Amino acid sequence: MRAVVRIDGKHRKGCRAWLPFSVRLYFYAGAESFRMVHTITYDGDQTAGHESGDFVRGLGVRFSVPMRDQAYDRHIRVAGEGKGFLTEAVKGITGLRRDPGAKIRTVQVKGEKLPDPATWDQRGTLSAWPFLQLGQHFADKARRAGVPFLEVDPAHTSQRCPRLGHTGGANRPDRDHFRCRRCGLAGPADLVAGVNVRHRARSARVFVTMPVAPGPTPA
To answer: Is-annotated flag, keyword Lyase (predicted)?
Structure first.
């Protein structure tokens, strides 16, 4: 038995809605996975030979599902041409200095569930949240130094013009360069991103917990 759910709509950014899409979800009785087909129709304005217009640098679909297994038993699988899959574990245990052994390596590379952790060496297991730990270290260091610490959302900072505020994927034609399609401002993409992060930090309205200076020690 198969059930199909179809969702139609338009991609929206700000007040503009364009790029009509159709998402079809295929569910099969008894299956733990489902199939998704995402179709778009380009209805933008693009004139040949002109830099102005609507450009699409990338488009994707993001969704969340409940995860019940341990991080090392969660796998991302990407299907390509043919019958194979590119499989990557969320928390890798292979390629480490303290190797868990060929048997455990083979199981994870195949995308299968690992045996009981008590049966293999976990001394070299990678942290599942390295970036979270890095942020915590920054916050702790700033607190000890008496410096306010705040987080700034870096989304699209390398695609936003610091002068006009125009944001678009076409402003960043490649990895290293930035050029605003509206005003022509150009420079290294990383430098432009840093300027935008600074602007956001200055205008952010956040609650910052400042460390309390220690008072005089009673005699």
So the answer is: no
Q: What is the pLDDT of residue 203?
A: 73
Query: Is the pTM value of this prediction over 0.70?
Result: no
Domain limits at 21?
A: 2-40
Residue 218 located in a structural domain = no
* Residue 219 in domain: no
Number of domains in the chain: 3
Cα distances from 87 to residues 29, 84, 112, 152, 201, in angstroms, run 25, 9, 10, 32, 38
Question: CB atoms < 10 A from the CB of 28, how many?
Answer: 12
Q: What is the largest CA-CA distance in the chain?
A: 81
